[in-house]
């Protein structure tokens, strides 16, 4: 989903909400800050500004907003998946998409022609033809496409992805990270373009078994990305995916509870293993101990809040379960090499 959002003035009884417009025309700004004149367009869906972190959390075509982990992917979704071309929506919004994220949705992008720039988790990447992007739920992303960019966006509810990869823990583990991939342009058979095109044709049709075909194509597309991500990890010298099922279950728990300051022993007990075994599997799979994965997830959310919101540092600390903001600041500085205030200042200056 490529969103355009605007703040609705409080006197319209929608404080701090953001809305989608199906055919948004140019914004006409009023005389005072935060005031917008009437905007023609069809409201598709309404979504609140991110509950804690303040980063926009967008739902897609009727998907009920909800937290990841609280029945993730079980909210109503009107189709097996959603597929659209990049220009179908980006061209309506000056080809600029502000940083945002999605609950319970995994998105796959394919850039066929032109390109631009992508912002993924606070880092900028050049987009060129034959670029493939995987965005797991809650991944912060934004785009500035060059006019005329061609390509596809396929959006999958977590439930669809989980069903297709139910017995494939290594694939689920490989898809857990945000990534920009560049398959060889000279070898089209090694790119996912044909899968995106097959999804688009099936999505636009109404033939017998359409839902089953879309679900199968979703699994094929996810498998292509998982393989490419695993191959990239192997080229970078990462360890083989041993214990991927345990690691996958661990990551689900961390995603659910990273705000609670649960210890490694707490997670290990829930998983029925010892902390030592859990860390051994984590090291073999990711190269870092399980405790580091817990800390990195908290720090990721802290960096998101510092970069994309105006929350006070103390508010961010409390949001992440720290009772002492000064202790949170020391943890952040030790892990990143700079205090939260310096990180925010550096990101603001970019």
How would you write the strand order of the largest sheet?
3-10-5-8-11
Strand elements, count: 11
Residues in helices, as a percent range: 25-40%
Q: Structural class given helices, strands, pairing?
A: alpha+beta
Question: Could you tell me the radius of gyration in angstroms?
Answer: 21 Å
Q: Could you name the ranges where pLDDT drops below 50 across 5 or more consecutive residues? A: 1-53, 61-76, 238-242
- Molecular shape: globular
H and E order: EEEHEEEEEEEHHEHHHHHHHHH
Beta-strand percent range: 15-25%
Query: What gap, in angstroms, lies between the N and C termini?
Result: 26 Å
Question: Could you please describe the fold and organization of this structure?
Answer:
By secondary structure, this protein is α+β, with helices and mostly antiparallel strands. The protein has helices spanning 86-90, 158-164, 169-174, 193-204, 210-235, 244-257, 264-271, 275-286, 290-308, 313-319, 325-336, 340-349, and strands spanning 17-21, 43-48, 82-85, 96-100, 105-113, 116-120, 123-127, 131-135, 141-145, 150-157, 179-181. The strands form 3 sheets. Strands 3-10-5-8-11 form a 5-stranded antiparallel beta sheet. Helix 4 (193-204) packs antiparallel against helix 5, helix 9 (290-308) packs across helix 12 (340-349) and helix 10 (313-319) packs across helix 11. Mean pLDDT is 77; it is low at 1-53, 61-76 and 238-242.
In short:
It contains 12 helices and 11 strands.
What labels would you give this structure?
single chain; 350 residues; alpha+beta; 5-stranded antiparallel β-sheet; 12 helices; 11 strands; 17% strand
């Amino acid at each position: 989903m490529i969103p355009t959002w605007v703040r609705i003035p409080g006197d319209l009884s929608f404080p701090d909400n953001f809305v989608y417009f199906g055919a948004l025309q140019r914004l006409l700004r009023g005389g005072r800050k935060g005031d917008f004149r009437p905007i023609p367009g069809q409201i598709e869906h309404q979504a609140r500004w991110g509950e804690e972190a303040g980063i926009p959390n967008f739902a897609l075509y009727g998907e009920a907003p909800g937290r990841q982990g609280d029945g993730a992917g079980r909210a109503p979704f009107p189709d097996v998946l959603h597929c659209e071309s990049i220009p179908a929506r980006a061209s309506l919004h000056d080809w600029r998409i502000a940083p945002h994220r999605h609950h319970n949705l995994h998105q796959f992008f394919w850039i066929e022609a032109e390109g631009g720039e992508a912002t993924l988790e606070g880092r900028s990447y050049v987009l060129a033809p034959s670029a493939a992007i995987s965005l797991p739920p809650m991944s912060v992303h934004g785009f500035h496409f060059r006019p005329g960019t061609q390509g596809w966006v396929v959006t999958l509810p977590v439930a669809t992805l989980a069903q297709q990869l139910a017995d494939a823990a290594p694939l689920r583990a490989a898809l857990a990270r945000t990534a920009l991939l560049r398959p060889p342009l000279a070898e089209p058979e090694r790119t996912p373009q044909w899968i995106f095109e097959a999804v688009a044709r099936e999505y636009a049709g109404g033939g017998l078994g359409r839902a089953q075909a879309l679900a199968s194509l979703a699994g094929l597309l996810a498998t292509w990305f998982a393989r490419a991500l695993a191959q990239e990890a192997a080229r970078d010298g990462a360890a083989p995916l041993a214990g991927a099922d345990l690691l996958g279950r661990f990551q689900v728990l961390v995603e659910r509870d990273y705000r609670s300051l649960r210890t490694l022993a707490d997670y290990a007990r829930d998983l029925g293993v010892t902390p030592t075994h859990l860390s051994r599997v984590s090291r073999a799979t990711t190269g870092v101990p399980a405790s580091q994965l817990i800390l990195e997830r908290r720090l990721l959310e802290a960096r998101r809040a510092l970069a994309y919101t105006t929350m006070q540092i103390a508010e961010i600390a409390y949001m992440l379960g720290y009772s002492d903001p000064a202790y949170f600041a020391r943890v952040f500085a030790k892990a990143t090499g700079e205090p939260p205030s310096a990180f925010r200042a550096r990101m603001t200056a970019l």
